[in-house]
Amino acid sequence: MSDAETVSVYNTRADSYNELVSRDTPDQDLQAFLDAVAPGGHVMDLGCGPGNSAAMMRDAGLSVDAVDASSGMVRVAREKYGIDARLATFDDITGTDLYDGVWANFSLLHATKADMPRHLAAIKAALKPGGVFHIGTKLGSDEMRDSIGRMYSYYEADELLGLLKDAGFAPRAPRFGRDKGLSGEMADFIVVLSDA
């Protein structure tokens, strides 16, 4: 189940979030994902936000299923980028062998730790053999709200890699960094591309 307060924050700040995260060319993580997905492949942008990444995937020749729990984000994705995004939560991930790739860039960190294994299992099932999964999350060990009310689950690197392996993924080398988010707070993060 989506956290209502987190969704409300994204609904009211969708336009400013778009200004914060949107770019004209893929960053290194999106480029690695694009390079790993089969040409012309079908991908899911899980927690697509304002749709900028989905637009770059589309422009790279991929078929994109863009979903987000925030109606504000879905609106921006449609109006700003022409992405046919739809409202959906992590619990709506169903099906088997549907996608060549799933992109969950700093979205699944809003799921509870208790729910993460279930979500990862659903993503693994939805990926075709040979598919890839990208996840980005913040580093830490707690579950808490940030200064603007969004709920976060933080993961240590070994914890996240263990969850991915337990779900049947083969994680590649993680990338670590530090950046400022919508709240204005600096945070350490980890991104991992895994083979299904």
3D structure, described in words:
- By secondary structure, this protein is an alpha/beta fold.
- The chain has one domain: Vaccinia Virus protein VP39 (Rossmann fold).
- Helices cover 34% and strands 29% of the residues.
- It contains seven helices and ten strands.
- Strands 1, 2, 3, 4, 5, 8, 9 and 10 form an eight-stranded mixed β-sheet that branches. The protein has a two-stranded antiparallel sheet with strand order 6-7.
- The longest helix has 11 residues.
- The two termini are 25 Å apart.
- What are the secondary-structure elements, in order, as H or E? HHHEHEHEEHEEEHEEE
DSSP, total strands: 10
Q: What count of helical segments does DSSP give? A: 7
C-alpha end-to-end distance: 25 Å
In the CATH hierarchy, the architecture is 3-Layer(aba) Sandwich
Tell me the overall shape.
globular
Radius of gyration: 15 Å
CATH class: Alpha Beta
**CATH homologous superfamily grouping:** Vaccinia Virus protein VP39
Q: What are the salient characteristics of this protein?
A:
34% helix; two-stranded antiparallel sheet; alpha/beta; 196 residues; 29% strand
Strand and helix layout:
Blueprint: H1 4-12, H2 14-21, H3 28-36, E1 42-46, H4 52-59, E2 63-68, H5 71-81, E3 86-87, E4 99-105, H6 116-126, E5 127-138, E6 143-145, E7 151-153, H7 157-166, E8 170-171, E9 175-180, E10 186-195
Parallel strand pairs: 1-2, 1-4, 2-3, 4-5
Antiparallel strand pairs: 5-10, 6-7, 8-10, 9-10
In short:
The chain has 196 residues and is an alpha/beta fold. It is built from seven helices and ten strands. The relative contact order is 0.16.
